[in-house]
Each structure stands twice: as C-alpha cells, then as structure tokens.
Amino acid sequence: xxxxxxxxxxxxxxxxxxxxxxxxxxxxxxxxxxxxxxxxxxxxxxxxxxxxxxxxxxxxxxxxxxxxxxxxxxxxxxxxxxxxxxxxxxxxxxxxxxxxxxxxxxxxxxxxxxxxxxxxxxxxxxxxxxxxxxxxxxxxxxxxxxxxxxxxxxxxxxxxxxxxxxxxxxxxxxxxxxxxxxxxxxxxxxxxxxxxxxxxxxxxxxxxxxxxxxxxxxxxxxxxxxxxxxxxxxxxxxxxxxxxxxxxxxxxxxxxxxxxxxxxxxxxxxxxxxxxxxxxxxxxxxxxxxxx
Length: 292
Known about the structure:
Elements (H helix, E strand, L loop, with lengths): L3 E5 L4 E2 L2 E2 L1 H13 L4 E4 L11 H15 L4 E5 L5 H14 L3 E5 L8 H13 L4 E6 L1 H4 L5 H10 L3 E6 L4 H10 L5 E4 L5 H5 L5 E4 L6 H12 L3 H17 L7 H9 L16 H15 L3
Parallel strand pairs: 1-4, 1-10, 4-5, 5-6, 6-7, 7-8, 8-9
Antiparallel strand pairs: 2-3
Helix pairs in contact: 1-2, 2-3, 3-4, 4-6, 6-7, 9-10, 10-12
C-alpha cells in the first residue's frame, strides 16, 4: 500500500546531459532520511523534456540504485493511451513497484474517456497504479465518482496523488473509496490539511531538499502527534510557498544548487529564476535554516 512520504525526484542535468552522479547522491540522501518511496520521471523530473530512452534509463538507474531500500514509482502518464500503456509496461519490466499515471493533458477527455484511458492502462499491467489528479496542469479533473468507478473496475488501481487543491475533494474521495485505497497529497503545503481528512502521505517536491523534515511531518501525524505535525507545517509553510514561486522544479533545483548538490540547470521551455525571485527564495531558506 502506498502511504508515507514519496519524493518526486528532480532530474539533475549538466551541460544538457543527465547528471547520474548527482542523481545517485540525491537518491542516497533520500533513503538515509527515511523516505518511503521515490518517483522517477514525474513532472518534477521534467518528464515532458526527456526522450523515451532517457526516461527508461532514469527509471532503470533509480530502481538499481534504490535496490529495494524504498519503493519506486515510475511516472508513465501521457495524453496518448497507447504511449502510457507502453511506458507502464516498460516500468513493470524494469522492476518498478508501481506506476504514477497523470490525467491525460491537453486533449481534455470526458469522464468516460478518462475512465476508459485509466482502465486500459491498468488492464495492460500487473503493476499497482497510482492515479494523478492535477487539473491546474492537465486542464481536466478526474471526478471523485470516476475514481470510485476505477477502484471497483481495476483492482490494481490502488491510490491517487491528489493535487486539486481542495480539502473537500479529499473528503469526498475518502467517503467514496474503500479504506484500502490510499490518498496522497500532491501539494506540500496541503499535506497536513489533506491528512486531517483522510490522506495518508504526500508525493513531495520539498523533500528533494528536506527529506527528513517532510518525513517527520508525515510520520508525526500518522503516529497521532498532530501538534508536532502542525508545528512542522508552520515552520515549513513559507518554504512550501516559495518553492513554487516559479514553475516547478525550477525553484527546488535552484535551492539544491545553492547547497552544492547539483546544477540548477533545467531544459527549455523552463528557464532560470528571475533575480527578484531568487532573492526571495534565498531569504526564505536562510530564515528556515537559521538556528532557533
């Protein structure tokens, strides 16, 4: 079952190529901090700008380096159902623990189209499938009723990463779905509110930079220490906000570069942060890291 803290790994680049040394170090830092799982080639991993061969190479590399020390989800979604099926089958062949499948973007299918899309993917694989609802990027929302239909029709669709920004939506999902079907927050800043109404973890961007802190927040709530989780949420709040001051993953890569962990390089159409936003993010980081 998918629960706890999953890091949506960035893809480090250096002079246009994938920096596998930096990626290996990033994976090791996540495992050392007690992460429950990682996501390879999700949106945070800049999957839209990776070639098919690069995606496969990153997934294989991640699985080999994790070596079963935590779970590995592979981002396999597409606006093309055949492409998503092929990517999911490849992830299964490579040994992933599950597939994170984003809603089809740009072509804006109906709810019936969404149902058939995810059903076709699920029926093509034995992997456990995590739906990914992010209407702000995809232009379409996977309705709670559609999620419920999929949970009944496809036993290997077992979880959803919810990034619709609504606590009410999480409440509706929890009311409609069996307890064995898990809900993960897709927004760092909403992890605690979402968990308060039934989510059981997060797929985090901030944990690339602060894996131990995000793990502690999630685990504190799971362990029944809501006050501690709230204190951590408040401490992290402004950082959560400013890591999205520009399109993800530009700010988190910039912060990782400031810590000497990789280059801040991204691929077009993404580009470096403007100076004013860099100054704002650096100030927020400095305040967070200042001894209390």
